[in-house]
Amino acid sequence: MVLACGQWMGAMSGKPMSELTVGMAAELSRTYDEWDIFIFAAVTGDLNPAHTDEAFAGTTPFHGRVAHGMLTSSLISAVLGTQLPGPGTIYLSQELKFRRPVKIGDTITARAEVVELLPEKNIARLRTTCVNQWEETVLEGEAVVMPSKQPALGPAGLVRPSAAASPKLGIPVLSRVEGVVGQKMSSVPVSVSPSTTLAEARALLRGHRIRHLVVGGERVDLGAITCALLNIVARMDHICAPKAASVLNELVASADKQLVILPGGHVGIVSGTGALKYLWPTIGDWLSQRSGEAKPAAAIEG
Fold it and tell me: FRET partner for 106 with CA separation of 20 to 30 A, picked from 90, 134, 248, 250?
């Protein structure tokens, strides 16, 4: 028996040991895209270019970027924690064997099936697998968990809304990280989803009268900035999404303003080869064009 499947999770309820039977199964599907990979890289610090740099990844045996193995396996954790046994489950161990790469655009279905129950220890053993859209196994292994001792409900705030009930603006949707701007620019934080169009982001920010930037603790009207401006934002920035940054850039009065969108999860953690390849050359080029001097190699290389 499969308990649940599909892209969107409904209300979550945990099953105690007394309600589990051998052969009971649950599954959950997700299509991974570039946003997921960059977010995972940003959160974990795993900036391996095999995942984040298309040029480098093209030289690998996979001929392109692949998802982190632990990103794929995390879908198993989602099944165990939200479906079977569900909320209240304690993860004790997980065996993993990676069989095939997961590439951008692949739809992965994670499945967990109960294979053994030890009621006296309140322990369940489950076979765990992940398959792609062609039913090819990309990951397999076994999980050992401790189910909740009594039925448990998942918090309502973590339940995914249905696609039909999820407007593009202002509603948290767990399948994406949204850009949140305006905490210090207005009384209410404003959420800008990656699926929002530029026109919608413009209307939202202007509707909340967000046109200030906090500099040194002081609110500065963007319309009062007339100097040359370089605005750098990361593609996966969860604080100020690129579309939100673009709208803020429009409000700057300067005739010389440039918005640069870097790959990665957050400008603040663009480091190592990422900084050398993208961030510092961009800043160096921008400064040299306005100073008339050659780009300082030491600043870029060091």
Answer: 90
